[in-house]
Amino acid sequence: MEQRRLSIVYADDDELVRETVAAVLIDAGMDVHACSDGREAVILCAQLSPRVVLLDLNMPGMDGLEAARRIREAPSMAAARLVAFTGRGTTELRTKATAAGFDEFLVKPLRQDVLIAALTGRL
Fold first, then answer.
1. Domain around 102
2. Is residue 1 part of a domain?
3. Is 36 inside any structural domain?
């Protein structure tokens, strides 16, 4: 039986980071739908119902925390794995991310194997 590729929506406002991370995930065999802000991520999640959502927390407009709250409101996204991806690893931000519905909290930069393990639930 053929295994489905892991479907991911990934939002990050930093174009270089977004393109680099997306390329790493695609090379790892994942189906990546990248966008540049939280609003786009919410729309993509409603359209695609991905198994995993990777969100930068500090984005202009709708940040990753608000996007996570809105994504979690959708019944189709109840079982999705939400992973926070941020350059600010404070205890306060980690607490806010947990309250917003994130399953994992990752601090940039990090090794590729750690990122992939977090997305696949093997961290």
1. 7-120
2. no
3. yes
Amino acid at 87: G
Establish whether the linkage from the previous residue to 50 is cis, with ω within 30° of 0. Answer: no
Provide the domain count of the chain: 1
Nearest to 7 by CA among 51, 67, 63, 55: 51
Looking at residue 122, its pLDDT comes to 76
Q: What is the mean pLDDT of residues 73-90?
A: 94
Nearest by Cα to 10 from 36, 30, 28, 29 = 36
Binned at pLDDT 50, 70 and 90, residue 123 comes out as low
**In this structure, which long-range contacts are made by residues 41-48, counting pairs with CB atoms below 8 Å and at least 24 apart in sequence?**
41/9, 41/10, 41/11, 41/67, 41/71, 42/67, 42/70, 42/71, 44/9, 45/9, 45/71, 45/74, 45/77, 45/80, 46/74, 46/76, 48/7, 48/9
